[in-house]
């Protein structure tokens, strides 16, 4: 089974969203089957990737960084998206952290990078804004020799 993981930004500017969605769809539709998608289901790139993967018939493995992860979601929409996708997951992996910390996010990101055949990064190319951020997970995957597909609309910056 082919395994594709995701890392990416929680906020995707509107002017990049259509490009990111099309890029994710192209990567996921172009894979051999059966296909497993790995995601932490954070708001933004992770949830978008997971939803498209499920539409494409992939099995979803959810990698949960911490015991209190649900508390990290701001707003009812982000939490509802997380819970809805989590219910559709084939498998759930939990990191051994009680609280959502940068270390927990890093552990989940490296678990995904370790476990996948290819990593998809919804990434603006900028340095990580904290430990476990997108840039750090991309660098980790590249050190492992994993293929990394970066999806971002050129010229668009995040706030």
Quick recap:
The chain is an alpha/beta fold. The protein has helices at 14-29, 45-55, 76-87, 102-115, 134-144, and strands spanning 2-8, 35-39, 59-64, 91-94, 118-122, 148-151. Helices cover 40% and strands 19% of the residues.
Q: How large, in whole angstroms, is the Cα Rg?
A: 14 Å
Q: How do the SSEs run, as a string of H and E?
A: EHEHEHEHEHE
Number of strands: 6
Q: How does the overall form come out from the CA principal axes? A: globular
- Poorly predicted regions are none
CATH architecture term: 3-Layer(aba) Sandwich
| Rounded average pLDDT | 95
Count of runs of 4 or more consecutive helical residues: 5
Terminal residue distance: 38 Å
Supply the number of structural domains: 1
CATH topology: Rossmann fold
Quaternary arrangement of the chains shown?
single chain
CATH class category label? Alpha Beta
The percent range for helix content is 40-55%
Beta content comes to 15-25%
Tell me the major beta sheet.
6 strands, parallel
Tell me the strand order in the biggest sheet. Answer: 4-3-2-1-5-6
Structural class: alpha/beta
Description:
The protein has 159 residues and is an alpha/beta fold. The chain has one domain: Rossmann fold, CATH 3.40.50. 40% of the residues lie in helices and 19% in strands. The chain contains five helices and six strands, in the order βαβαβαβαβαβ. The protein has helices spanning 14-29, 45-55, 76-87, 102-115, 134-144; strands at residues 2-8, 35-39, 59-64, 91-94, 118-122, 148-151. It has a six-stranded parallel sheet, with helices on both faces. Strand 3, helix 3 (76-87) and strand 4 form a beta-alpha-beta unit. The protein is globular, with a radius of gyration of 14 Å. The model has no long low-confidence stretch (mean pLDDT 95).
């Amino acid at each position: 089974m082919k395994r594709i993981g995701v890392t990416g930004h929680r906020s995707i500017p509107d002017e990049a969203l259509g490009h990111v969605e099309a890029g994710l769809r192209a990567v996921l539709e172009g894979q051999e089957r059966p296909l497993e998608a790995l995601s932490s289901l954070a708001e933004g790139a992770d949830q978008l990737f997971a939803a498209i993967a499920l539409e494409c018939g992939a099995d979803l493995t959810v990698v949960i960084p911490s015991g209190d992860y649900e508390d990290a979601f701001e707003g009812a929409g982000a939490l509802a998206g997380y819970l809805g996708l989590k219910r559709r997951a084939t498998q759930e992996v939990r990191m051994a952290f009680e609280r959502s910390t940068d270390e927990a996010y890093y552990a989940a990101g490296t678990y995904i990078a370790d476990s996948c055949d290819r990593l998809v990064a919804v990434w603006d190319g900028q340095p990580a804004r904290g430990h476990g951020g997108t840039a750090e997970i991309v660098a980790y995957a590249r050190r492992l020799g994993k293929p990394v597909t970066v999806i971002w609309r050129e010229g668009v910056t995040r706030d």
